[in-house]
Amino acid sequence: MALAALVLVAAVLAVTVYLLLNKRRFQLTAKFPQPLLWLPGIGGLADTIYHYGLSGMAWCFGYYKRFGPVWGMWIGPEFFVITAVAEDIEAIVTSPAVIDKGKNYALIWPWLGDGLLLLGAKKWHARRKQLTPTFHFRILEQFMDVFTEKGVVLEGLVDGLVGKGVVDLRPYISRHALDVICETTMGTQLNCQLQEDSGFVQAVKVACKAVDDRHAYPWLRNDALFRMTRIAKEFYGALDIIHGVTKKVIADRKSDLTKEMKEGVLDADNNDEILGTKKRKMFIDHLLTMHLQGEDLSEKDIFDEVNTFMFEGHDTTMTSVCFTLFLLATHPEVQDRVAEEARSVGGTSTSAQLGELKYLEAVIKESLRLYPSVPLYSRHAHDEFKLPSGYTVPAGATLLINAYLMHHREEYFKDPSAFKPERFLSGSSEESSRHHFSYVPFSAGYRNCIGQRFAMLSMKATLARLVSKFRFLPDSADPKLDLDVQVVLVSKSGLPLVVERRD
């Protein structure tokens, strides 16, 4: 009895000390509209369970109706501030005080390491400066041949689906995106589209699923608990395969580049000194050239950056193309206009031709508004941070930029649920009057997506080729998307469409 009383007293004292030490934090968090707590600083159990039981962004709209565009939320001992206010987002993404990513990004560190996506502020600035030239438009032009080659393969596979009724196109789009990113990043042809059962393709699929599960289920975020699961065993096994490919490609390409530069066959800009031609130079070549020229970029840095670009460039592009095809299938008049425009420029083999596809670009931008690949971005507040909406974010909290909700707010987009590509055509009144930070499909500010021009070129090349050759129809008279927020926004039902050849 005495022991029980002693334990109770100790517990009460521990909680009291905890609350006193965090008094300022709780004063600030209490000012945010938020779900009811069952214990301060631990989280609203019922709301947390309810939150994870909802599909897609339903939880987001539920809280928006209850609390407005800014609210707070405890998930375990961590406090989140969610905002869908453009002025708040401008303040967040343009402030060096909150440049570090949220703690949830640590879940993908075993895969990506210290690549640009996960680097802290101190190292990030220098690395961003190093990598920016590798995404210059002149360099992206060299990727056009890859877009064309991989697009031809995809076209052949989709042609084989004609006459087969409703088919799920997402696996085809996914493997195509993986093919493109493998060659443009590593300069290697893994033929993912034609070898769907290859170890590499399956490893990427398993690793992505494990990352999704860790985001979806709070108990899997604890490293100790996660490592005890079957999912962890599969995840680390998949990473062994993915990382093995990356390491081999880096070693082989470094050996080739070193030999060619020593023999004078290839200069630092990848010019063939003997033939007087320029070889295709991929992302890895630029990084290795920096390394060989003595820049502050180690082989481990290159390894992490290659894995990062592979990760970021695959799922995001795939899901964007899928959502755009769905919207085109459900809006045949828009689809026909895209097909006509694609045919009018005479092909998709050059960046100049893709640059003429203004309407297709507006279609893609509107698709990204309705279905942003990354619906939520997070930042870590090391210190207190004042939001223009009037709230003060406590030190240690995670800021969540809710791009999905903001893109669906009437304050920023008229008739926000409607698919209207003309919003993004040059000269539209909506385009000129909209708050600059109300549309953030590639994030914004300091840590905006470094590869967004690459992504747009890739998506335009893929969609223009497909829509100019095929007509896509919905699977029913009333097609629906079953949205799910994983690492990226996806449709749990895939991309069920009917494919017909165009005349």
UniProtKB/TrEMBL annotation:
Cellular localization per UniProt: Endoplasmic reticulum membrane; Microsome membrane
Keyword Oxidoreductase appears in the UniProt entry: yes
Binding site for heme: C449
Membrane topology designation: Peripheral membrane protein
Gene Ontology CC: endoplasmic reticulum membrane
InterPro entries assigned: Cyt_P450, Cyt_P450_CS, Cyt_P450_E_grp-I, Cyt_P450_sf, Cytochrome_P450_Monoox
The UniProt record lists the keyword Methyltransferase: no
Keywords: Endoplasmic reticulum, Heme, Iron, Membrane, Metal-binding, Microsome, Monooxygenase, Oxidoreductase
GO MF annotation list: heme binding; iron ion binding; monooxygenase activity; oxidoreductase activity, acting on paired donors, with incorporation or reduction of molecular oxygen
Chief subcellular location: endoplasmic reticulum
Coiled coil, from the record: none
Tree of life domain: Eukaryota
UniProt-listed SUPFAM superfamilies: Cytochrome P450
Listed cofactors: heme
Family membership: Belongs to the cytochrome P450 family.
Protein name per Swiss-Prot or TrEMBL: Probable cytochrome P450 4s3 isoform X1
Species of provenance: Thrips palmi
